[in-house]
Design brief:
Length: 96
């Protein structure tokens, strides 16, 4: 939960790279959560730089604007995530 806690932003890409390598080495699956724009961007950068699209997924959970009691879960393709980050669109469950 909140994987970026205690990690300087300059090291976030290195942490993601190490985590991907460890997951592959030990055949494990990792679930990480973050509301940090910088950590989400670092994740996206490592996915693209290392062609890890098949090894990782980005999911958003957000309340439905039509029904705030409902929470939607959606997998976001990495290139859609890149577009959202580049255009400063919500990536952390914000409702706009």
């Amino acid at each position: 939960d909140e994987i970026e806690n205690g990690i300087h932003y300059e090291n976030q890409q290195a942490i993601w790279k190490i985590l991907f390598e460890l997951c592959e080495m030990y055949n494990i699956q990792l679930f990480a959560t973050s509301h940090s724009y910088e950590m989400i961007k670092a994740y996206k950068d490592i996915i693209i730089q290392n062609d890890y699209q098949a090894k990782g997924g980005y999911f958003e959970m957000a309340r439905s604007p039509a029904n705030p009691a409902k929470i939607n879960l959606q997998k976001i393709p990495v290139f859609s995530l890149e577009e959202k980050l580049d255009n400063h669109m919500p990536v952390r469950g914000e409702i706009k």
